[in-house]
Amino acid sequence: MTHSASIASGSACPSQVSDSDEAEHSTDHGSIAQRMGRFSRWALAALACLWLALCTAVGPIYWADSSIASWSWFQTLTLLGSFAVYFSMVCALVRFGRGQRIIPLTWLRTTRASLASRLQASSQANSQVSKICLAIRRFFTSRLWVGMKTACSRILIQATNRRWKIALILCVGWIWIPTTLLSAYGADIRSQMREFSWAWNQWTGVHQPYIGFFSFVPMDIYPTAHYLWPESSTYLTDQHNIVLTIVHGAVAAASRYLTGSNDWGLVTLSAMQWLFAILCCSATLHRFLNLPWLRREAVFATPSPFGQPEYSQALELIDPTHPERGYRPLTLECRTKKNGSALLPAGPIFRFAFLPFFLFCPLVVFSTISLTKSPLFAFAFVWWFGIGYELHMTSGLHLGTKRGLRKRSFIAMLIATCIMLISAKYAWYILVFQLVLFLIADRKRWYVYVITTLLPVIVIHGGIALMINNGSIISGDPIESRGIQLQQIARIAKRNPSAISSSAKARLSAVFNLDQMAEAYYPQDADPVKSSGIQSKKVSYRWRSATPEDLEAFNKAWLEIIKADPVTATDAFLAKCFGYFNVFDQPYVAMNYYVSNDYVQQSSTWIKYQFHDWRNTISEDAQQWGEIPVLGWVTHGNFYVTLTLIFGAAEVILRRWRTLVWHMPLLLLMGVMITAPANNFERHMLPVAFVFGCMALTFWRESRPRAACSKAAL
Questions:
Q1: To which H or E segment does residue 93 belong?
Q2: Residue 316 pairs with which residues in a beta bridge?
Q3: Residues with Cβ < 8 Å from 308, sequence gap 6 or more?
Q4: How many domains, in total, are found in the chain?
Q5: Between 170 and 325, where is the model more confident?
Q6: What is the sign of the dihedral through the CA atoms of 228, 230, 234 and 237?
Q7: Among 278, 326, 608, 690, which has the minimal tally of Cβ within 10 Å of its Cβ?
């Protein structure tokens, strides 16, 4: 029975199936508990919009290196205007998610009547304009236009209906990146190579100084407190993740042995990451666009126009008597339960939106060969996120019965989790938190999450902790996670030193040189304050003599200082993180930095002579594109972070709790951004930016049945 027949016979459509959204509007919706719940969800969404509006309003203040104390009417208007825009976007998404018109029908009728009268008056005044409008209208309703649109849609769907086809498109579209840009990197990989080289020399019997006040060993460049060093000398640290340090350092060492320079090793590492990016992106796009797990359960409602079973349930003829008019989506041909999610492969519009982003956006393009931990984590996260979508869609709410994870997806999730763990130290926090949520929301498939998430965390994170405890490697310094505290103390020391009491100075003196902190303070970045970088740095952090007890006293001093000057402390906090949530803010360090910095263009052995000007041109073009108002937003991570937070707020209001469970890592990654050393550091936003389109497609799918039934009921 077709869905049109089902509706006619009174059958329930997907959005009529009882769920949390519809239950809220039932006869007992007036209960206090439901009212409080509804108020809490809207309040939470309003707070998210208020945070975005605040970050937008304070932008001009911190661009001018001023203080929030200088708040003016302009900031107030910006705050109110930004809040209105963001909250309106949330409201529009909520209305769409409930199957309602984004703009109320009465408004549409009024607007249409007004426009019609204006057009009629205009056409009477100018018959030529009327003829042009009529010609345009006829064209967009002509068989030629319908045929062109149908042909383009069929070609696009046919070209992206398999994973290998998507991979081929990415490979062809990205082939210029490793062949002309060769490699992209910064200071981190040079530090990793230095650590491995010193460790290799130690293993081969070359004597090197391990400690000395005037000598800098690798763990002093990005300083690691000496109390963390073991008694027996070692030069390997977990500062940049020990597994990556060994891999990158070993490849570079082999390159030096075989070719006399690091460059071939760097190019090889970039090529490997490029291939990994193709694997992750093609696999995830295939899962979101084509829903490959549906093939065995496809409903053959109409003959397949492409010879692929999964599309049989997705399209139908617009007019069976006129096949040349093409196909349209079967808006109600889906099997749903609570969530009302349409199990349909994506149409041509979403496919067309995904490909340009992955092929041309500088965030993706430059990340494919950038040898720093964040891009590798981001691509692994994309892979993991796609498998999470498959788990979400086969949980029983969408197919009607719970299904196990496919073997290939099971293995892929295990590998993706391992790569996330070895590329970013904060990954294990996210994974453990997510494991708890998964076990609560999907208890029957607990074994999947235990094997693919808990086991890698125990083996990899536990193994690294064991090596740290037995002195094989040196732990990363906990000062790295105190960026907010450092910036607050340093700003107060520079802007209002009289607020720091003598007792606070005494507690700080064992860990930091307060005068050097004030001199090294830079609003955008906490690294100078903690003495990270080359040997000419300001030595404000006393990493040679600090002890764990001194750090406890540091916390007490910090609390005392921010109590003495909360306004300046607020300035330090906002100045360090507002750019992540302000679409008008230009990145502090964009991804094009890794393509054309001095390490690549000046300090490399032979890479600097190959395509030198081309790298500068590509980097400058990307920067100029990003500086274009509005059009440049799509090249910046904060644009996708902002939209992700808005979509998440809408999901909270709609009570899509299981979807939120799967999207929770995106919120945790925003917390990582806030605590990161630098403001609006592009590479920290890569995971959120890469999967935002997938989140939007999910929201559309879970809203579509409601919209279809709402229209059918009109």
A1: helix 73-97
A2: 328
A3: 161
A4: 2
A5: 170
A6: negative
A7: 608
Cβ 220 vs Cβ 171: under 8 Å? no
490 shares its domain with 569 = yes
Domain-located, residue 56 = yes
pLDDT, tens digit, 9 for 90 and up, residues 331-382: 433 333 333 344 678 888 889 999 999 999 999 999 999 999 999 999 999 9
- 642 and 576, same domain (yes or no): no
Phi then psi for residue 109, to 5 deg, are: -65, -40
Question: What 3 state SS string does 132-158 have?
Answer: HHHHHHHHHCCHHHHHHHHHHHHHHHH
Asked whether residue 500 is domain-assigned, the answer is yes
Residue 402 lies in a domain: no
> Nearest 5°: phi and psi at 237?
-125, 165
CB 618 within 8 A of CB 641: no
Distance CA 107, CA 117 (A): 15
Distances (CA, A) of 390 to 55, 157, 210, 385: 35, 20, 50, 9
Report the SS3 class of residue 29. Answer: coil
Rounded mean pLDDT, 665-691: 94
Crossing angle (nearest 10°) for helices 373-393 and 407-423: 150
Q: Tell me how long the chain is.
A: 714
163: left (phi over 0), alpha (psi -120 to 50) or beta: alpha
pTM value > 0.85: yes
Contact (Cβ atoms closer than 8 angstroms) between residue 227 and residue 277: no
